[in-house]
Structure formats: structure tokens, C-alpha cells
Specification:
By secondary structure, the chain is α+β, with helices and mostly antiparallel strands. It is built from 13 helices and 15 strands. A hairpin with a 2-residue loop joins β5 and β6. The longest helix has 24 residues. The two termini are 35 Å apart.
Length: 354
Amino acid sequence: MAFIDYKKAFDSVESWAVIQSLQNARIDHRYTQLIEKIYHNARLKVNLPPETNPVRIERGVRQGDTISPKLFTLVLEDIFKLLKWENRGLNIAGNRLNNLRFADDIVLFSDNPHDLETMIQELSDASGRFGLEMNLDKTKIMTNCPNNTMDIRINQTVIERVEKYVYLGQEVVMGKKNQTNEIDRRIRLAWAAYSKIEFALKMNITAEQKARIHDQCILPVLTYGAETWVFTKEILSKLRVAQRAIERKMVGVTLRDRKRNEWLREQSKVTDVIKRVANLKWQWAGHVARKHGSWCKTLLEWRPYGETRPRGRPQMRWTDDIRKTSGSKWIEIAQDRDEWHKLKEAYTFEVENG
């Protein structure tokens, strides 16, 4: 697996590539012409006395422009159309998964290092035609085969191999420690968010106002990505303990005061973190079940052919707690939004008391 990073991705695309991509996407020619006129032969002046002479803008779409991610995505789509990767990547139920893309955050997949090296090199060459340069210092390799020591070189540069990588805000780690590492990282980030707004929580405001600050600024940081978590007892316990510690800070008590959790919640009035993560996961599970043709659903139903479970107790799976509430036919039940919504309260109760 390779995590790809570009140098100045949003503002280094050639202007002709942007126009060509707009035409290939069959965007209305009036919008294409408007964008072309905006960026073709553009000039600027610095309006400070004395006013400067016109300076030609030689860059493409600037990163601060709100339209730049959309134009970059169109160009990137054309780049990937040049790549013949039908037989590369991971074989998932007869289909090949070779890349995932979110704007300029790209992940490439392969089942052997030779193919992965070829894929990265081909992507680098194709991107260069459109003015994009791959940042090889930030491009990383990750593998679940520790015995594989082959170096992957791109343009004579060895790509660094890493044990963990933060992708789309979540830390990816191969193996059993993937979730526990991410939960610990979420807790650290939640405390960092608390320290930034601690001055506001110490002001002379009502408990309801403090709770609103917590729910809007700290809780989203603590629960980011909770839709993908497997709710083991260890993870739920870590989340509870972290939130109670933050609540004690907000209320102004310590463990030595020996206040019960019920009293603490009555004083803080914050949203319970377990209810929050349960609601997020339940909503996401329903979305995945109703989304046909997506990799999320395909991977959820996929069973590797010829693979056997390792010895020992099976690990808890992402769907185990969902099946406990809605049964083995939960995907069929999720097609009915009203019925799925009715089961959310029962699922939250199961997670809280599981």
C-alpha cells in the first residue's frame, strides 16, 4: 500500500489541462469559457502607492480558491484514465481495488511490491504531463508482510517504508493495534482541543453554555471516525474515562472529591460520548447498506477465498454489535429508513450496556 502526496497539488496544474478536463467532463461550454477567460493571461497589480505595473500570473488555480479542489479532481480523473490498471491491485470478489482517492489524498494498493513500484512510477509520469509533481519525501509505503524487504524506487529515490500513517485524519496501523492506537490519539487530540478553549470554560457562564462548547469543540474531535470503530469493552472504557476527566476539569472537581458519575453528568450536562459514537456508527451502517456498488459495501460482504482464521479467539468484527441488535439480515432491514431509525435506540442501549 502506498500513500501518495503531491507538491502544491492545487496550484500547479497547467491551465490547458484544466480546460481540457472540463471539456472531457462535458461541462457546459459557457462555464468552461468563463473559467478559461478568468485564468488566461491573468494579471495583477499591487494597490499600494505607488501602484505597481501589471504582473502576469504564471501559476494556475490558487489553492485558496474555492473552485480549485473541483478542478483538481477533474484533472486527476483524466490522469487515472491514462493508466491501464485493470489487472493490478487487490482482487476483491472478482474486481480490482487499486486506488482510493479523496482530492489529493491518494492510496494505491497492490499484492506485490513490483506491481506497486510500477503503479507509482506510472502515476508519477502521467501526473508530470499535467504539471503535477509527486512529493516523494511525503510519499510512504506500508505493508502487512514484514518479511518483504524490497526497496521501492521512483526516479532513483527510495520510498520510505512506515509502520503507521495518518490518512484523512485517522492513523492507519497494520495489525491488531490499529484501533487502540487511534483511540489513544483521539484522546490526546481531545485534550489539545480542550486546552485551546479552557479559558472559555472557566468564564462565568452557565453549565448549558459550557456543555454546548464541549459538544461543538471537543466531542467531535474525540469521536472523529467513530463510524469505523469496532466497539470493544476496552475502547468504550477508554472513551468514558477520557470524557469523565474532561468533565471534572469543566466542573472543577478532582478524583479526591469522590463525586459519583451521575452527579458529574448532572453538573456538566454534556452529551455522552458513548451515545454519540453509537449514533454515528448506526447512521453510517445504514448508509453503507443502502449504497449499492460502493467499495464499502463490497468489502463488508467480502470473504477472502482460501483464507482461514488464525488460531485463538476470533476478534470482534465491525458488524457484530449491529447484528446483535438487528439480526443477520440487517442489510435488508436498513433499506427501510423508518425501520432502521426505530432500531437506533435499541442499538445505543446495547452499546452502552454491552
